[in-house]
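User: Hello! My lab partner asked me to get a predicted holo structure for this protein. The small molecule is zinc ion, SMILES included with the sequence. Please write out the structure tokens.
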Amino acid sequence: MITTFGTPQPLHALCLAPHPDDAEIGAGGTLAQLARLGRPVGILELSRGEQGTLGTPEIRALECVRAGEILGLSWRGQLGLPDGDLGDTPEAAHALAAVLRLVRPQLLFVPHYADRHPDHVGSYQLAKRALHLAALAKAEVPGSSHRAARVLLYQGNAPIQPNVLVDIEQDLITWEAAIRAHASQFSGRAVSETVTPEVIERRKARLMYWGTFAGRRFCEAFESESPLLLAPQSL
Ligand SMILES: [Zn+2]
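Assistant: Hello! Below are the structure tokens for the protein in complex with zinc ion.
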């Protein structure tokens, strides 16, 4: 793992990104909001996106730094796993568990298991294993054991059934600016069914769709696999 932005430190929230722009697209509004509220927030890319049709790993690394500045991240790291081959392997799980022990997130954002991209599904499976390993006191992983208090799955390129919505209207401009920082990926070229000239408009439409269910203009949608414990005053 290499640090690409900021300093490794105990984080309130960490977002795992299979490829360099996934965190911004799926959870960027919530990450920006947490950072704006003064919480230390980080992103860990699992791969350098070297199999992507557009851009190069070097260009994408620079774009990640710019997006990190825009989001107000405290830390950003790169795990350097093979793009196109992300999944639950012992080596990858140990490497990710070591990062979890290093930056000790209370809240972890993970790609949703329902996705058309095998790397996103593989990242979910890898995260499950790494979370377990990081919490096991006797696991042969550097650092002391750590268990994230909450895990939220963020939407990729498939429908999900969310049970957590976050109003991101105040951070919508930051969300879009952070995505556009990945300029090589959003050049206006049609690359696939999901990356088309209107890709950001489609994503914004999705935020509006989820907002419908909370009476808000723009919401990011997440799934928690365990029940949420809410304080009575927040009901
Ligand atoms: Zn991706």
